[in-house]
Specification:
Blueprint lengths: L1 H21 L1 H22 L10 E3 L4 H4 L2 H10 L6 H12 L12 H5 L8 H18 L4 H10 L2 H10 L9 E2 L5 E2 L1 H16 L11 H4 L10 H6 L2 E3 L33 E3 L2 E4 L4 E4 L2 E4 L5 E3 L4 E7 L12 E7 L2 E6 L1 E4 L6 E2 L4 E5 L9 E8 L2 E3 L2 H4 L1
Helix pairs in contact: 1-2, 4-5, 4-7, 7-8
Length: about 400
């Protein structure tokens, strides 16, 4: 705040000096140019980090939560995250349901003192809630979705995601349920692990699966659909594409002379090549190439084409591929991406080269997270490495 006031004083004094030096008309012209320059500078360095364009607008929240907008904005401005005020109000709506009698509307007690009920004043709850969200946002390096889920799970979830996916991985929706509900395989996995631990130490009775989607996975720790739930209470701002929020995005591969790219960005090792091998089941011919990569690593279309076959990551798989995607590139050429943890495309969809289509997993006949990449020409497997190298 102090820096803002200083900046305003400097701007005023500078404009007065210009007016006295070159006259009013000249000052007006330069002043306009100066303001434009300041706006551009503010966009480049303003609050929001890598999500600087990510503007949220208040959505369908209750009047009781709406009345706290000024207070939320005040605390958020002190932390230079005022652009997230609508999102923080959405968290409050999700946490308290707009209950006017709730004394801890941000459900921030545990983040302050480690147990429920230590905050009994809405003002204190909001202050702590804003500070807790800011801590999660900073810990997640500005990844809004990861920060949101961690507000529900706790900061250890950020460490878990970074360990599983890598420090630079983007946390993105990759599992879809009916009625448009979306979540992440990382949220499900973490919830499963934490719930199993609580059961092991005798605290399982304290955790209830509040959602049917969580019951089917045995993921009863926290809320695996928390991000989706919170986002229902905000509207997206104007001028921000999906990439601003860590979803969507494109790969960085550059097509080679054959017009192909690698299906993964980064230097992931080949754990099994094309040709004969024996993994303990006897000699077999491996029809593709396996790349060892962490679960959740984005998988990109190696070439543009049409999706002709998809098996989602549901747990029911017709063959050893597990969750798999087939893309027809024309001329009898088909690429295959297998053992996925999530799929983002549907049959009949046209996909572009570099478009994210799924995530690395270990579904089907697999001993660990990896991508099985295969290319067939007229239904005959061919070594894919010469195409993508």
């Amino acid at each position: 705040m102090f820096l803002k006031h200083v900046g305003n004083l400097i701007k005023k004094k500078l404009l007065l000096w210009i007016a006295g030096t070159i006259g009013i008309s000249g000052a007006v012209f330069i002043g306009i140019a100066f303001c434009i320059m300041m706006v551009i500078l503010a966009i480049m360095v303003g609050g929001g980090g890598k999500f600087a364009c990510a503007e949220f607008q208040i959505g369908n929240i209750s009047p009781h939560v709406k009345k706290y907008e000024y207070l939320v904005s005040k605390y958020a401005e002190e932390l230079n995250i005022e652009e997230y005020t609508p999102l923080i109000l959405a968290i409050m709506e999700q946490e308290s349901g707009g209950n006017p009698d709730e004394r801890d509307p941000m459900q921030a007690s545990e983040s302050l003192c480690g147990f429920i009920g230590c905050i009994t004043n809405p003002k204190k709850s909001i202050q702590q809630g804003v500070e807790h969200f800011n801590y999660m946002l900073q810990s997640a390096n500005g990844d809004v979705f990861l920060a949101l889920q961690s507000y529900n799970f706790g900061s250890d979830f950020i460490k878990f995601v970074r360990t599983e996916m890598g420090v630079d991985a983007v946390y993105e929706f990759n599992i879809k349920f009916e009625d448009g509900k979306e979540t992440y395989d990382m949220a499900i996995k973490y919830s499963q692990i934490e719930y199993q631990f609580q059961v092991l130490i005798g605290n399982g009775h304290l955790y209830k699966c509040s959602r049917e989607e969580a019951k089917m996975y045995g993921a009863c720790f926290g809320d695996i659909l928390y991000v989706w739930a919170v986002l229902n209470y905000v509207e997206r701002g104007v001028g921000c594409g999906d990439d601003s929020f860590g979803t969507g995005g494109r790969g960085t591969g550059v097509p080679n002379a054959q017009g192909w790219i690698k299906p993964l960005t980064g230097n992931y090792p080949i754990t099994s090549g094309f040709g004969w091998r024996d993994l303990g089941y006897g000699p077999e011919f491996h029809n593709g190439v396996d790349f060892g990569a962490p679960t959740g690593t984005p998988v990109y279309a190696a070439k543009e084409g049409v999706v002709i076959y998809v098996v989602p990551a549901t747990g029911n798989y017709p063959d050893s591929f597990g969750s798999v995607i087939f893309i027809d590139h024309g001329g009898g050429v088909v690429s295959i991406y297998a053992h996925l943890s999530a799929t983002h495309v549907r049959v009949g969809q046209n996909v572009e080269q570099n478009q994210p289509i799924g995530n690395v997993g270990s579904t089907g006949r697999s001993t660990g997270p990896h991508l099985h990449f295969e290319v067939r020409v007229n239904n005959q497997p061919t070594n894919p490495l010469p195409l993508i190298q």
